[in-house]
Amino acid sequence: ADEGSGSCRSVSRCARTGGPVNRIGPAELRYLALLIAMADSDTERQPPEAVAADEPFLTSLDLFLFSLIAGLLIYWFIFRKKKEEIPEFKPLPIQTAAARETSFIEKMKKTGKNIVVFYGSQTGTAEEFSNRLSKDAHRYGMRGMAADPEEYDMSELSRLTEIENSICVFCMATYGEGDPTDNAQDFYDWLQEVDVDLSGVNFTVFGLGNKTYEHYNAMGKYVDKRLEELGAQRIFDLGMGDDDANLEEDFVSWREQFWPAVCEHFGVEATGDESRFDYSWQLSLELRDGRAGVSLRHCSLSLPVSVSVSTSWWSTLTCTRARCTAGSWAG
């Protein structure tokens, strides 16, 4: 500080020399602090408008993420697979088919039959003979039924005694080299395997065969023999038809003797109505020109017995059980 100026430029110097010192009072300090605080407040606090003006609302990263999410949502709604509905399967009601009647005994009881005629047939002839025999039963006040052994339980033969005045007839054809027919194979196997007691069972057998084969009527002979071995009662002798000769005549001849034996066995009498017998003739006639070798006329006829027919070929055609004879030709 300069001497005589009455002031000091340095506080410490004035203090040392004893000169006057200019000091800042409390009021000035408070004002200075207020100014500094206001300056800091203006710097730290900026209005939201300013911040918004300085920084954008969505950045490029936000826009990318938003676009990606939007694209995925659009793809999902447009290209998504519809949920495949699993069809609901409702359980169908079980329809139980009517059980096939395998008991020929029960069927005979229900229908009032007392004669059953089983057939082993390959071409249908034995089946036809069985049907004819079953129809014959009406002539004697009986009732018969033809039956396929393949469709019934043949182990019930022993129960035939439960039916009064019952008979079991077998029309058995031999097939091939002494073999049973297809529908009689199971019955044949059963006869070979079982040892059942058939006591009281009435039976008879008619076999269909051909003498040109080595094992002529093998099936008919076996059934007849085996049933007797098992204790069944034969009420009439084994009949055998030869297809190489005249099978129809063999059957008719056997049948005409069979029914009287049935009547004698059961003590019944025939009604006398022979028209119930279904005799018939199958005729195939042809008139040929021998020189030209051509057929001039051809005719097939199915005729019952005891008939007379007038035709343009002959004056009369008379058929009986034994034969059909033609009268004079009409030209």
Task: Provide an overview of this structure.
This protein has 331 residues and is an alpha/beta fold. The chain contains nine helices and twelve strands. The chain has helices at 11-17, 26-44, 48-54, 60-79, 104-111, 125-136, 185-193, 218-229, 247-266; strands at 115-120, 144-147, 167-175, 179-180, 202-209, 233-234, 239-242, 280-289, 294-304, 307-309, 317-319, 324-326. Strands 1, 2, 3, 4, 5, 6 and 7 form a seven-stranded mixed β-sheet that branches. The chain has a three-stranded antiparallel β-sheet with strand order 10-11-12, with no helix packed on it. The radius of gyration is 61 Å and the shape is rod-shaped.
Task: Write a concise keyword list for the protein shown above.
331 residues, 34% helix, three-stranded antiparallel beta sheet, seven-stranded mixed beta sheet, rod-shaped, alpha/beta
Strands, helices and their partners?
Layout (H helix, E strand, L loop, with lengths): L10 H7 L8 H19 L3 H7 L5 H20 L24 H8 L3 E6 L4 H12 L7 E4 L19 E9 L3 E2 L4 H9 L8 E8 L8 H12 L3 E2 L4 E4 L4 H20 L13 E10 L4 E11 L2 E3 L7 E3 L4 E3 L5
Parallel strand pairs: 1-2, 1-3, 3-5, 5-6, 5-7
Antiparallel strand pairs: 3-4, 8-9, 10-11, 11-12
Integer average pLDDT = 75
Global morphology = rod-shaped
Secondary-structure-based class equals: alpha/beta
Count of discrete alpha- or pi-helical segments spanning 4 or more residues = 9
Radius of gyration: 61 Å
By DSSP, the count of extended strands is 12
How far apart the termini lie comes to 189 Å
Mind describing the biggest β-sheet?
Answer: 7 strands, mixed
Helix/strand order, N-terminal first: HHHHHEHEEEHEHEEHEEEEE
Strand residue content = 15-25%
The percent of residues in helical segments reads 25-40%
Task: Detail the poorly predicted runs.
Answer: 1-17, 274-282, 304-323, 327-331
